[in-house]
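Dear Dr. L.,

I hope this message finds you well. Following up on our conversation about the binding site, I have prepared a predicted three-dimensional model of the protein together with pyridoxal-5'-phosphate. For your records, I am including the exact sequence and ligand specification that went into the calculation, followed by the structure tokens. Please feel free to forward this to your student if that is useful.
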Amino acid sequence: MDMAMDKSKTARTAFLGWTAAGGPGGVRWLDHAATTPRLACAVAAERAFYERTNANPGRGLHRLGVAATAALEEAREVVRTFAGDRGKTGIIVFVRGTTEALNLVANAAGTEDEIWVGGAEHHSNLLPWFRGGRTVHVIPLTAAGDLDVGALAEGLRTGRGKGRKWVAFAAVSNVMGRLQDVAAICRVARAAGAKTVVDAAQVAFHGALQAEAWGCDFLAFSGHKMGGPMGIGALWGRTEALEELPPLMVGGEMVVDVEEEGCAMELAEVPARLEAGTVNAAGAAGLAAAAQWVAQCPAETHRRVAELAQEAARQLAAIEGVRVLGGAEEGGRRGVRTSLVTFTVDGVHAHDVAQWLDGEGIAVRGGRLCAHPVLARLGVTAATRASFGPVNDESDVAALVAAVRRAQEALR
Ligand SMILES: Cc1ncc(COP(=O)(O)O)c(C=O)c1O
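The resulting structure of the complex is given below.
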């Protein structure tokens, strides 16, 4: 048996509903970018929290309350290390997911601030910055579909914002799928005095979070896109940067003192002040278990996933009438494709492609990918996206490419 195939079969059994032979319903799962299969260890950790402690963290003085608090703080530490913060320069705030994390940060920006967002952002890293009538500048893309760092540097140099500067971008865009030079972008941004916000939703499952090495101020990711539970995610922030954020919500356990007179409240320290209400502690335990699984995955697993995406991109691009978004695989590119490929088929709507592929037992995403301005910039109204993970192997690439050919024949 082919060694690479053997590895993917071993990896499969780590996920709920998967056996060495395949996943739920016999479907080839090429929709990891929307959500990944669930790691059994993450669900077990979530369940163990409810079974063994089941108390509200940070509140109960009884032994189960103390145990729940300890479990939450332990999860926080695991996730901090996973984010690439070994020097304890930052703190994890538990949130529902990347969207909430980015809203929490963008909520701190003022109307006078100068805001730069990447040219290939998911709506989650675009709409929160639009709020309050702010002016948002877009970092242009190179022909290959990568962020143009030189253009950002020039833009920041000549920018006219009167307030603070922010640079927010995806380490890997959910449309382009290419790992950006995050450290270089953060360097340029910080040299101009800007705060940096990295959307890591599409990179967390692929073992590459490096909050400290990248030199960012904030980093956001979701549990469900890395084998963990839905409804839990993390915002990592440098401690001083987090301290400057106003809470997005107010309520229980985020204040030191409250007085009705003058509606006064004294906020607690971070992270509590940014986690109003009961934290999803069971989800946090699940996220921590997923983080440990991903961190322990051999580098070869991540490399193999990238190779599958790259091979799919190459083979799709070779089909006449199929356009892979974001430049060719070879030749003078900065970005490296990590896990996904987005494409269009001339004369066939992306919904029809996705439906055809479903008919052949292949799950992909078809539509506007929660990235309308990005597709408009690329001159398309909708696209199909295939996204890979450790459960996939070469047979999935072959099945995808053959099915796209058949869809093209049948539907155009
Ligand atoms: C790049 C990117 N950012 C943010 C999000 C939003 O993630 P969530 O829905 O988990 O908040 C997504 C989801 O697809 C994404 O791909």
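In brief: The radius of gyration is 22 Å.

With kind regards,
A. P.
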